[in-house]
Amino acid sequence: MLALGNPSTLVKATVLSLCLGSISFAAQAETTITAVMHAPLRAVDPVISTAYILRNYGYMVYDTLLARDSAGKPQPQMASWTVSDDGKTYTFTLRDGLKWHDGTPVKAEDAVASLKRWSQVDKTGQVMAKLLERYDITDDKTFVMTFKEPTGIALIALSKPSGVAPFMFPKAVAETPVGQPITSTIGSGPFKFVAADYKPGVGATFVKNTDYVPRSEPADGLSGGKVVKVDKVVWTTMPDPMTAMNALMSGEIDMVEQAPHDLLPLVDGNPDLQTIVFPKQVNQNLVRMNFTLPPFDNPKIRQAALLALDQQQMLDAQVGAGSKYGKVCASVFGCTGLYPSTYRADDIIKAHPAEAKALLKEAGYDGKPILLMHATDLASLAPQGPVIAQNLRDAGFNVDMVSMDWASVVARRANKQPVAEGGWNMFSTTNVGPDVGDPIGFIGVAAGGSSAWFGWPDVPEIETLRLDMAKASDPAKQKEIAEQIDHLVIDNGVMIPMGEFQQVMVASSKLKGEISAEAPVFWNVEKAK
Amino acid sequence: MLTFVVKRILSAVPVLIMVAIIVFLVLRLSPGDPALMIAGPSATEDQLQALRESMGLTKPLLQQLFLWIGQILSGDFGVSLISGKPVTELILDRFGPTLALSLSTIVLAVAVAIPLGVLAAWQQGKWIDRLVMAGSVLGFSVPVFIVGYILILIFARGLGWFPVQGYKPLSDGFGPFAVRLVLPSVALSFPYIALIARIVRTNVIEVMGEDYIRTARAKGLTEGGVLMDHALGNAAVPIVTIIGVSIAMLIGGVVVTESVFNIPGLGRLVLESVLARDYTVIQTVILLFSTIYVFINLAVDLLYGLFDPRIRY
């Protein structure tokens, strides 16, 4: 017992109580990570759009039935599964403790409704739907997917990590038609979305979902326990990257998800900051030609374009000459995924203007200008157009490079009319590694003519092989099929790989535990006081 | 006067209708499709069509235009095609930061530019005049974002006096609100200080040559009295005009400053909406800008009468 009559004891008691007060205050102080993401969040339906910021939002608020580990292998997340001996029936059982953010339990009917909506939108989901015979809901925690023939697509599709990932929604929300964006933000994921703080294009706030029961396994890729170690994550938008870097260096924010490569020297040697690269979030550059219009309706002229382009020049323009973040790669499915290839590597990686010229002459190219769409408002795309145009000109192509904003490229590339009526011949873009490495879902290799991605290549052998890939469950067989698709894509000029580059995250040294996965996630991340 | 105000407001109606029609048609006839922007490259044509239908974009153009005008007249500005949030809510969220930045900038610009202009006129041809004029050339010539970066480097990163970026509403307290407005307002005020100071100087010099100024001097007034009581008041009409134009330009033209200092204002909203082809938001914001222009011009006209008793409406 303290004798308060003693002045020194009184002082000690006061100091002690102040200390206890400050400890109590510290214990109550919120831990917040403020992050500048690569794009502003302007919508909240992660299924209807392929925008990566919506995928990232999805991983905050929603959960997936399965998830890929760091080796790319599907693992249980919300559900575990069993497969029938004939490989046609998959039974999924939801784990205990799953709740929506409003406190109601997650049920099998929610999962089925979510998968039905997702498989209308996503390329892999569409293939899965074609092979699927029916869904059966056995009880609140169990549902069965029965396929028309043995297939490995269920696990590939349900663990799809990027593009449009198969997030789970409450049944009532999942029944929203795909032509109508959902507005609900009720998920079952490790974070809750604070709708009151959401300002589209400005910022979004997520708080720890205290009711979330993580899996017991350690986090590994997107699989394992999603243990949230901070109270709040704030995504803020900064249109000027220089401002974002200044704010980071001043300690006003905690991380910049994708720092521009030319600003990285600013953080070199700064002990308060760390640069982090997630190998799976690699970006692939690609060039796409319009198969339906001259001159790229001629296979030889497509091959001439392939021979004309130079990957290193493109990468130098994007990430800086000699940068360690750019890497040449001849593989259609990327060099960091499961299906790397070196097929015709020299043709794809280096420019061969003399051979391209000879091929153009042989093909009877009439000198008609190639309309190349050049997006100027996205940092990774802006340098591409001029490099492509010059490579093509060096090889004897006549190029009309039309500069426009990305929204105009998006609209114009859907136009199947002749160039004079708003059509096009060529454009370039980037895709992330997880999307590129998926032979079933990668839009760049789909070659079903009018149903294919913009450019509308029609190579039936590729479509047959993609379906074979969906049916295959043996990894060796999948690899063999992927290799055949790679060769057909290159030989037909379905797309031209233009090298890979890494985005670099710059974060405060106070942040620890970032997960290396296909998407930036905030579980497991700690922030030191 | 009241008749004049009513007439001016009524005369603004056809201007605003024309602006609405032009903006609507320019947006719809320019390349871009919000459905494609939302749905992404994997969407099928059926999905895109369903999205367009849910946004009301499949109706004939004229029908869309009349529906929109009808909505506006009933006070409904619609919802953002991208976020689904009411346009009014988006604009209200962004109006505060832009208004705060614009007003603080113009107050700073006027407070600095008028004394500088008067001083330059008073010291015409001397080194102070040359210094002010050289400074105004610099103010015109150096882009705002360069000034912004320099201010950030010195006062935020170097001295740590101000935050690098951000905005806090006045409801969060005057300190946090004001401290975040200092650097952007100073950066943005440079060209306006240059502009207003030049106009003030020119007009004061012109007025200083008038007979009544000579009379005032002959009456024994001090040079300060002559400048403040006679010269500046008589030079006020063009100065008020340029200040009015500056406010209008500021509200519509703060996008660079808002980007450099990460202020979530209307300029950024317009830019984001244009890039995403968010038609309903762009249309409403431009209509708002036009309305602001009209009312600022009206306010300027009314102020003429205050400074020049000969002007009566």
Automatic annotation (TrEMBL), chain B:
<feature type="transmembrane region" description="Helical">
    <location>
        <begin position="95"/>
        <end position="119"/>
    </location>
</feature>
<keyword id="KW-0472">Membrane</keyword>
<dbReference type="GO" id="GO:0055085">
    <property type="term" value="P:transmembrane transport"/>
</dbReference>
<keyword id="KW-1133">Transmembrane helix</keyword>
<feature type="transmembrane region" description="Helical">
    <location>
        <begin position="281"/>
        <end position="307"/>
    </location>
</feature>
<dbReference type="InterPro" id="IPR035906">
    <property type="entry name" value="MetI-like_sf"/>
</dbReference>
<feature type="transmembrane region" description="Helical">
    <location>
        <begin position="6"/>
        <end position="27"/>
    </location>
</feature>
<feature type="transmembrane region" description="Helical">
    <location>
        <begin position="177"/>
        <end position="200"/>
    </location>
</feature>
<feature type="transmembrane region" description="Helical">
    <location>
        <begin position="131"/>
        <end position="157"/>
    </location>
</feature>
<keyword id="KW-0813">Transport</keyword>
<keyword id="KW-0812">Transmembrane</keyword>
<protein>
    <submittedName>
        <fullName>Peptide ABC transporter</fullName>
    </submittedName>
</protein>
<dbReference type="Pfam" id="PF19300">
    <property type="entry name" value="BPD_transp_1_N"/>
</dbReference>
<dbReference type="Pfam" id="PF00528">
    <property type="entry name" value="BPD_transp_1"/>
</dbReference>
<comment type="similarity">
    <text>Belongs to the binding-protein-dependent transport system permease family.</text>
</comment>
<dbReference type="InterPro" id="IPR000515">
    <property type="entry name" value="MetI-like"/>
</dbReference>
<feature type="transmembrane region" description="Helical">
    <location>
        <begin position="235"/>
        <end position="261"/>
    </location>
</feature>
<feature type="domain" description="ABC transmembrane type-1">
    <location>
        <begin position="95"/>
        <end position="304"/>
    </location>
</feature>
<dbReference type="InterPro" id="IPR045621">
    <property type="entry name" value="BPD_transp_1_N"/>
</dbReference>
<dbReference type="GO" id="GO:0005886">
    <property type="term" value="C:plasma membrane"/>
</dbReference>
<keyword id="KW-1003">Cell membrane</keyword>
